[in-house]
């Protein structure tokens, strides 16, 4: 299994589950490409694994993982991304499809590269975590959509209100067992 069955992974996987549900609920904002910054983070690859597992029942999309050169082989070995590239290779990615960016790193330099490269085809940008918190760069103007904080506790409450405890827990357990 991609995700360890240890209880320590479950809170991170909950965030992955919530991101997957949020994107699906919003029909991926019309995007055909979903990019994860800091693709080696557990939350990123947990979400990518869910996107891959759920793809047959959804519209088709490509899931791309961005990572450091040092983590490139590790991220490729996870087999949950369709494409894995290092941060320096963002400009080599095709940019003609509507794209969503989910940023786990918080690195403003990478976020700016993504926003500039995908331009008007970047339809949604969010930041979930800040593995590179010293490079966050809040307040910097970027082309494309303004990055939105994905705050898991709020999304958790939204899903619980919408689905109720029983349905939410069944869906989460099914996702946990799927990965």
Order of helices and strands: HEHEHEEHEEHH
Strand arrangement within the widest β-sheet reads 3-2-1-4-5-6
Q: So how many helices?
A: 6
Largest sheet entry: 6 strands, parallel
Cα-atom radius of gyration: 15 Å
Global mean pLDDT: 88
Report the structural category: alpha/beta
The shape, in one word, is globular
From the structure above, extract its key features.
179 residues; alpha/beta; 6 strands; globular
Brief account:
The protein is of the alpha/beta class. 40% of the residues lie in helices and 16% in strands.
What is the topological layout?
Elements: H1 10-25, E1 33-37, H2 42-54, E2 62-67, H3 72-77, E3 83-86, E4 99-103, H4 108-118, E5 122-127, E6 148-149, H5 152-163, H6 165-178
Parallel strand pairs: 1-2, 1-4, 2-3, 4-5, 5-6
Helix pairs in contact: 1-2, 1-5, 5-6
Commentary on this structure:
- This protein has 179 residues and is α/β, with parallel strands linked by helices.
- The protein is 40% helix and 16% strand.
- The protein has helices at 10-25, 42-54, 72-77, 108-118, 152-163, 165-178; strands spanning 33-37, 62-67, 83-86, 99-103, 122-127, 148-149.
- A 6-stranded parallel beta sheet has the order 3-2-1-4-5-6, sandwiched between helices.
- The termini are close together.
- The mean pLDDT is 88.
């Amino acid at each position: 299994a991609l995700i360890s069955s240890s209880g320590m992974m479950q809170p991170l996987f909950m965030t992955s589950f919530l991101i997957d549900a949020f994107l699906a609920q919003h029909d991926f904002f019309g995007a055909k490409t979903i990019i994860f910054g800091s693709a080696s983070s557990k939350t990123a690859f947990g979400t990518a694994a869910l996107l891959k597992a759920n793809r047959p029942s959804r519209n088709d999309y490509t899931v791309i993982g961005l990572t450091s050169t040092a983590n490139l082989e590790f991220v490729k070995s996870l087999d949950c991304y369709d494409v894995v590239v290092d941060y320096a290779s963002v400009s080599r990615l095709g940019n003609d499809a509507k794209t969503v960016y989910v940023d786990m790193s918080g690195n403003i330099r990478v976020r700016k590269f993504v926003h500039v490269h995908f331009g008007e085809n970047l339809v949604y940008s969010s930041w979930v975590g800040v593995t590179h918190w010293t490079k966050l760069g809040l307040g910097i103007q970027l082309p494309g959509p303004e990055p939105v904080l994905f705050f898991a506790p709020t999304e958790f409450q939204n899903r619980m209100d919408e689905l109720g405890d029983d349905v939410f827990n069944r869906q989460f357990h099914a996702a946990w067992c799927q990965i």
